[in-house]
Amino acid sequence: DVDFAADRGNWTGKLDFLLSCIGYCVGLGNVWRFPYRAYTNGGGAFLVPYFLMLAICGIPLFFLELSLGQFSSLGPLAVWKISPLFKGAGAAMLLIVGLVAIYYNMIIAYVLFYLFASLTSNLPWEHCGNWWNTDLCLEHRGSKDGNGALPLNLTSTVSPSEEYW
């Protein structure tokens, strides 16, 4: 048996490896977006090109990545010593992972910001008169006459929540 370096972790079992692969492939964004994407792009007909591309590109590339990682026990930069032609592929992989990490962190920051903004007793998007409101801001719910005798032209106005978002 070959003894691996102590600083490099190994899988404790097959189920551990399988669950890690599933977690790597299926993110929370995919679970949220997939039904919407399928609906907007033709419903069930969208599944035909999806599974076709999954079989032609997705699974073979994923298998290649797993195989190279298992075989070499190296990271994305060092594994491409196998072929000097693909040396830039490891750097591109790290660059893409870094950009995706920044993207996801910004989404989580927006979610947390608006979550805590919505937990206040006076919502910031409830009334006009804030620094971000323009002269077109009008609180629509309090602007109508009680008996409806004076119809207002609301087409050129904007609600405070629209201006906030």
From TrEMBL:
The keyword Plastid does not apply. Its main location: membrane. Na(+) binds at residues 23, 26, 30. It comes from the Eukaryota. GO terms for cellular component: plasma membrane. Pfam families: SNF (PF00209). It is a multi-pass membrane protein. Keywords: Disulfide bond, Membrane, Metal-binding, Sodium, Symport, Transmembrane, Transmembrane helix, Transport. Disulfide bonds join 128-137. It is found in: Membrane. SUPFAM superfamilies: SNF-like (SSF161070). GO terms for molecular function: amino acid:sodium symporter activity; metal ion binding. The chain crosses the membrane at residues 17-35, 47-71, 91-117. One of its GO terms (biological process) is amino acid import across plasma membrane. Belongs to the sodium:neurotransmitter symporter (SNF) (TC 2.A.22) family. This is Transporter. It comes from Gulo gulo (Wolverine).
